Amino acid sequence: MSDPLPDPATLPPIRSARPAQTAALMAETGLTEAMLSELVHSFYARVRADPMLAPVFDARIRDWGPHLEQMVEFWSSVALMTGRYHGAPMPAHIDLPVTWEHFGRWLSLFRATAHEVCPPEGAAHVIERAERIARALHMAIEDHAGNARGAAPVLRPGHAP
Ligand code: HEM
Question: What is the C-alpha separation between 114 and 140, in angstroms, rounded?
Fold first, then answer.
Protein backbone atom coordinates (compact mmCIF):
# COMPACT_ATOMS: atom_id res chain seq x y z
CA MET A 1 0.00 0.00 0.00
CA SER A 2 1.35 3.45 -0.87
CA ASP A 3 1.90 6.16 1.75
CA PRO A 4 -0.91 8.72 2.12
CA LEU A 5 -0.21 12.02 0.34
CA PRO A 6 1.24 14.68 2.69
CA ASP A 7 -1.09 17.47 3.80
CA PRO A 8 -0.09 20.47 1.58
CA ALA A 9 -0.21 22.71 4.67
CA THR A 10 2.75 20.77 6.12
CA LEU A 11 4.95 21.15 3.01
CA PRO A 12 7.44 24.03 2.78
CA PRO A 13 6.00 26.93 0.74
CA ILE A 14 7.20 27.16 -2.89
CA ARG A 15 9.15 30.37 -3.38
CA SER A 16 8.45 31.01 -7.02
CA ALA A 17 7.34 33.75 -9.39
CA ARG A 18 5.26 31.02 -11.12
CA PRO A 19 4.14 28.67 -8.32
CA ALA A 20 1.85 26.50 -10.50
CA GLN A 21 4.56 25.88 -13.11
CA THR A 22 7.13 25.19 -10.37
CA ALA A 23 4.79 22.72 -8.65
CA ALA A 24 4.21 20.91 -11.98
CA LEU A 25 7.98 20.69 -12.64
CA MET A 26 8.60 19.39 -9.11
CA ALA A 27 5.96 16.69 -9.65
CA GLU A 28 7.37 15.69 -13.07
CA THR A 29 11.04 15.60 -12.08
CA GLY A 30 10.98 14.77 -8.36
CA LEU A 31 13.33 17.76 -7.81
CA THR A 32 13.07 20.00 -4.73
CA GLU A 33 14.89 23.17 -3.68
CA ALA A 34 16.71 21.15 -0.99
CA MET A 35 17.90 18.65 -3.62
CA LEU A 36 19.17 21.44 -5.90
CA SER A 37 21.05 22.97 -2.98
CA GLU A 38 22.66 19.57 -2.28
CA LEU A 39 23.47 19.20 -6.01
CA VAL A 40 25.21 22.61 -6.12
CA HIS A 41 27.19 22.09 -2.91
CA SER A 42 28.37 18.55 -3.78
CA PHE A 43 29.14 19.51 -7.37
CA TYR A 44 31.31 22.54 -6.49
CA ALA A 45 33.10 20.51 -3.78
CA ARG A 46 34.20 18.21 -6.66
CA VAL A 47 35.07 21.15 -8.92
CA ARG A 48 37.26 22.64 -6.18
CA ALA A 49 39.14 19.33 -5.86
CA ASP A 50 39.58 18.86 -9.61
CA PRO A 51 43.11 19.54 -10.96
CA MET A 52 41.84 20.89 -14.30
CA LEU A 53 38.97 23.10 -13.06
CA ALA A 54 40.07 24.26 -9.60
CA PRO A 55 42.74 26.74 -10.82
CA VAL A 56 40.22 28.49 -13.15
CA PHE A 57 37.72 28.98 -10.32
CA ASP A 58 40.38 29.84 -7.70
CA ALA A 59 41.67 32.68 -9.90
CA ARG A 60 38.19 34.32 -9.93
CA ILE A 61 36.33 33.39 -6.78
CA ARG A 62 37.57 34.68 -3.42
CA ASP A 63 34.45 34.01 -1.36
CA TRP A 64 32.60 30.78 -2.17
CA GLY A 65 29.63 31.49 0.15
CA PRO A 66 27.89 34.06 -2.10
CA HIS A 67 28.84 32.14 -5.26
CA LEU A 68 27.20 28.94 -4.00
CA GLU A 69 24.07 30.86 -2.94
CA GLN A 70 23.89 32.39 -6.41
CA MET A 71 24.32 28.97 -8.04
CA VAL A 72 21.46 27.52 -5.96
CA GLU A 73 19.27 30.41 -7.18
CA PHE A 74 20.44 29.78 -10.76
CA TRP A 75 19.53 26.08 -10.66
CA SER A 76 16.23 26.83 -8.94
CA SER A 77 15.39 29.18 -11.84
CA VAL A 78 16.67 26.88 -14.60
CA ALA A 79 15.23 23.59 -13.31
CA LEU A 80 12.06 24.75 -11.53
CA MET A 81 11.34 28.11 -13.22
CA THR A 82 11.17 29.96 -9.89
CA GLY A 83 12.68 33.19 -11.24
CA ARG A 84 15.04 33.40 -8.24
CA TYR A 85 18.22 34.09 -10.27
CA HIS A 86 18.77 37.60 -11.61
CA GLY A 87 22.37 37.44 -12.87
CA ALA A 88 24.00 37.24 -16.29
CA PRO A 89 26.10 34.09 -16.93
CA MET A 90 27.62 35.14 -20.30
CA PRO A 91 29.85 38.03 -19.13
CA ALA A 92 31.11 35.88 -16.22
CA HIS A 93 32.53 33.31 -18.67
CA ILE A 94 33.39 35.19 -21.84
CA ASP A 95 37.09 35.69 -21.12
CA LEU A 96 37.81 32.58 -19.05
CA PRO A 97 40.92 30.64 -20.20
CA VAL A 98 38.97 27.49 -21.07
CA THR A 99 38.46 25.10 -23.99
CA TRP A 100 35.80 22.45 -24.69
CA GLU A 101 37.96 20.05 -22.66
CA HIS A 102 37.19 22.09 -19.51
CA PHE A 103 33.47 22.03 -20.32
CA GLY A 104 33.67 18.26 -20.89
CA ARG A 105 35.22 17.83 -17.45
CA TRP A 106 32.65 20.21 -15.87
CA LEU A 107 29.83 18.17 -17.45
CA SER A 108 31.22 14.82 -16.38
CA LEU A 109 31.43 15.96 -12.72
CA PHE A 110 27.95 17.48 -13.00
CA ARG A 111 26.41 14.29 -14.47
CA ALA A 112 27.97 12.11 -11.76
CA THR A 113 26.71 14.43 -8.98
CA ALA A 114 23.21 14.72 -10.49
CA HIS A 115 22.87 10.92 -10.67
CA GLU A 116 23.90 10.64 -7.01
CA VAL A 117 21.70 13.42 -5.65
CA CYS A 118 18.55 13.39 -7.84
CA PRO A 119 16.00 10.78 -8.90
CA PRO A 120 16.49 9.61 -12.54
CA GLU A 121 13.93 12.04 -14.07
CA GLY A 122 15.38 14.93 -12.08
CA ALA A 123 18.96 14.06 -13.06
CA ALA A 124 17.99 13.87 -16.77
CA HIS A 125 16.23 17.25 -16.47
CA VAL A 126 19.20 19.15 -14.96
CA ILE A 127 21.79 17.37 -17.16
CA GLU A 128 19.93 18.26 -20.36
CA ARG A 129 19.88 21.92 -19.31
CA ALA A 130 23.53 21.93 -18.21
CA GLU A 131 24.61 20.46 -21.57
CA ARG A 132 22.63 23.07 -23.50
CA ILE A 133 24.02 25.99 -21.44
CA ALA A 134 27.59 24.60 -21.61
CA ARG A 135 27.40 24.54 -25.43
CA ALA A 136 26.07 28.12 -25.51
CA LEU A 137 28.77 29.39 -23.13
CA HIS A 138 31.50 27.61 -25.07
CA MET A 139 30.27 29.05 -28.37
CA ALA A 140 30.23 32.57 -26.88
CA ILE A 141 33.79 32.12 -25.54
CA GLU A 142 35.01 30.91 -28.96
CA ASP A 143 33.33 33.82 -30.78
CA HIS A 144 34.76 36.29 -28.30
CA ALA A 145 38.29 34.87 -28.68
CA GLY A 146 37.97 34.87 -32.49
CA ASN A 147 36.79 38.49 -32.55
CA ALA A 148 39.54 39.54 -30.14
CA ARG A 149 42.13 38.05 -32.55
CA GLY A 150 40.64 40.13 -35.34
CA ALA A 151 39.04 37.18 -37.14
CA ALA A 152 35.86 37.72 -39.13
CA PRO A 153 32.80 37.19 -36.95
CA VAL A 154 31.29 33.73 -37.30
CA LEU A 155 28.22 33.90 -39.51
CA ARG A 156 25.30 31.65 -38.73
CA PRO A 157 22.30 31.13 -40.99
CA GLY A 158 19.45 33.37 -39.92
CA HIS A 159 21.65 35.72 -37.86
CA ALA A 160 22.79 39.09 -39.13
CA PRO A 161 26.54 39.64 -38.56
C1 HEM B 1 34.55 25.10 -18.00
C2 HEM B 1 33.40 25.27 -17.34
C3 HEM B 1 33.12 26.44 -16.43
C4 HEM B 1 33.98 27.24 -15.75
C5 HEM B 1 35.52 27.15 -15.68
C6 HEM B 1 33.18 28.22 -15.05
C7 HEM B 1 33.70 29.20 -14.22
C8 HEM B 1 32.96 30.18 -13.58
C9 HEM B 1 33.52 31.24 -12.77
C10 HEM B 1 35.02 31.42 -12.48
C11 HEM B 1 32.49 32.00 -12.33
C12 HEM B 1 32.59 33.23 -11.43
C13 HEM B 1 32.78 34.45 -12.28
C14 HEM B 1 32.96 35.70 -11.47
O15 HEM B 1 32.23 35.90 -10.47
O16 HEM B 1 33.84 36.49 -11.84
C17 HEM B 1 31.27 31.42 -12.85
C18 HEM B 1 30.01 31.91 -12.62
C19 HEM B 1 28.86 31.31 -13.05
N20 HEM B 1 28.76 30.13 -13.78
FE21 HEM B 1 30.29 29.07 -14.56
N22 HEM B 1 31.86 28.01 -15.31
C23 HEM B 1 31.77 26.92 -16.16
C24 HEM B 1 30.61 26.37 -16.66
C25 HEM B 1 29.34 26.76 -16.33
C26 HEM B 1 28.14 26.14 -16.80
C27 HEM B 1 28.09 24.94 -17.77
C28 HEM B 1 27.10 26.82 -16.23
C29 HEM B 1 25.62 26.59 -16.36
C30 HEM B 1 25.07 25.39 -16.62
C31 HEM B 1 27.65 27.88 -15.41
C32 HEM B 1 26.92 28.80 -14.70
C33 HEM B 1 27.45 29.87 -14.01
C34 HEM B 1 26.63 30.93 -13.40
C35 HEM B 1 25.12 31.03 -13.41
C36 HEM B 1 27.53 31.83 -12.81
C37 HEM B 1 27.18 33.13 -12.06
C38 HEM B 1 27.18 34.30 -13.05
C39 HEM B 1 26.73 35.59 -12.41
O40 HEM B 1 25.50 35.78 -12.24
O41 HEM B 1 27.61 36.41 -12.04
N42 HEM B 1 29.02 27.81 -15.50
N43 HEM B 1 31.60 30.31 -13.61
Answer: 25
Helix (H, G, I), strand (E, B) or coil at 59: coil
- Tell me the whole-structure pTM to 2 decimals: 0.88
63: exposed, middle or buried (Cβ count in 10 Å: 0-12, 13-18, 19+): exposed
CA gap 58, 46 in Å, rounded: 13
Degrees to nearest 5, angle at CA 43 with 57 and 51: 45
Residue pLDDT, tens place only, 133-150: 999 999 999 999 887 777
Distance 41 CA to ligand 1 centre (A): 14
Distance (angstroms) between ligand 1 centre and the Cα of 89 equals 6
Point out the ligand 1 atom lying closest to the alpha carbon of residue 103. Answer: 1
